[in-house]
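pasting diguanylate cyclase for the record, 577 residues
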Amino acid sequence: MTRRAPHQPAPVRPGPSHREASGPRWLPRTWRRALLLALAMLLAGHGPAPAAETLRVAVLLSSGQTLPWSRELLAGLAEAQNRHGAGLELSIEPLDAARFSTPAQEKTLRDLLAARHAPAPPHAIVAESDNALRFLERHGRDIFGDAPVVLLASRGQGSGLPNFRSAIDDAPWIQATARLILAVAPRTGRVLVLGDDQGRGRAALDLAQEALTARKPRLEVEVAAGLSESEMAGRVAGLAPHSAVLYALPPSDGPGDALERVAAASSAPVFAFSETFLGRGIAGGYLVSPRMMASLAVDEALSAARGAPPALPSVPDPPTFDRRALDRWGIPASALPAGSRILFDEPPLHRRYPGETAIVAAVVALETALIAALCLLLARRGREAARLARAHALLEERVGERAGELARLAVTDGLTGLPNRREFTRLAAREVERARRSGRDFSLVMADLDNFMEVNGLSGHDAGDAVLQAFAALLAANLRKADVVARYEGDAFVALLPDTAPESALVAVEKLRLLVEGTAFDAGSAPPLRITVSFGVAGSAETASDLDSLLQLAVHRLSEAKRAGRNRVCGPPVHEA
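structre below
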């Protein structure tokens, strides 16, 4: 943290002090200014507050009061209030960006604060972080007048505030930690400084670089500002031996705090400055806490209210280290400055409790032997169980295959591979019910090979079976997937055509008849045979959509086709369809 005097002096309040030229010219200029300032204080009632007066300090918090950083700041403010007692009156004003994000909401907040502080304006302002600084730059004069402003943990410069007093930031702790790196690891040849390139963050990096090079002029210092988490992790992972990392980024309440991941990826020890970083992988540093910053900011605000000049804070000893990180990087305790605090430095359990540790070790050894014997027994049983499981699985697989084969045979014609009559009845009944619900037409087709007995008699049953198989394949290949085709009995086949009116069915069946008539069917060992087929077609509109009635009608039409000379399609008259 650095308290710096403003680059420009605060403007003098309007009043008689601006009339310096009207004073007696025989007085020295310094005395004339003092008399005029005293006269202005008497007339205007302004100036440093008397020591006995209760001083009012307004603290503007950039975010809500529930975040860890804000809770620590509030604890530090409470300690400052207790320390100063009746001489201090603190007013905490949270400027939650989530609740006041639009210009209209910000104007409401401005009017609310102006009304709240109008009866008793604060003697000084503490602005925490950048949101509060930007709010003051826009509305501070309207709400608080010319009360001096102290910036707390802000990366901004405060140049937009004419009444800017000083800033409490982390620069002194960063600078002290930079010098600490070389004291702890004097062989360090390179230091990578990770930080913020905004405003005071950039100035803190410059101070850290100056501190390092002043301590060791030939030291290689690389300042990397504004990197993403992945970029920082990649940069620290490739550091050469005798390197170190100074993590100079401010702490974060959100998931964007990348220190743990950077420290885990680093190939060199990481040092930092904030107490909130302890236990996250850093080796150590001069650590400042939000409580300390809040207390220093209140003290500086009170000094500003009394008219005292700004004062630089001193970095308190001792530095703090994490034993686990020191062990990771091989940094011995003898290399640390005298009086250093070493946390997480508990001795191992076997040294703290030797007797209990021996008993536990004996019990563990006995349990290990018992477990080993049990594991051997279980392994033997496991092998037997695995063998039985394999045999059982093989048996189940064979049973399943056999059951599947039986189930397939139960619904499939063994010669043609088409569904058998029973399976057709089940599938057709489902389609009939669906057609009844949707109100759509469907057609039923019966087909019978003409003079098939002569094929069996002249060419043999093997040739007849081959012809039946070829005809079944032709039917399945030339009808739609939605159509239900089956072997009904002997050389008779049946097909149900969903969503098909009798006129369309007659056209489709006629194409099939012509295709069969022009095809020479493979008859196995016998020469190819030419056959013809007769078809009977029935439409659902001709009956009450009952499957048995349709079958009877289709069989009747098939018989008509046979009587009419075979090799033809017989269906409902076109005018009836």
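The chain is about 45% helix and 15% strand.
Confidence is low (pLDDT under 50) at residues 1-31, 33-51.
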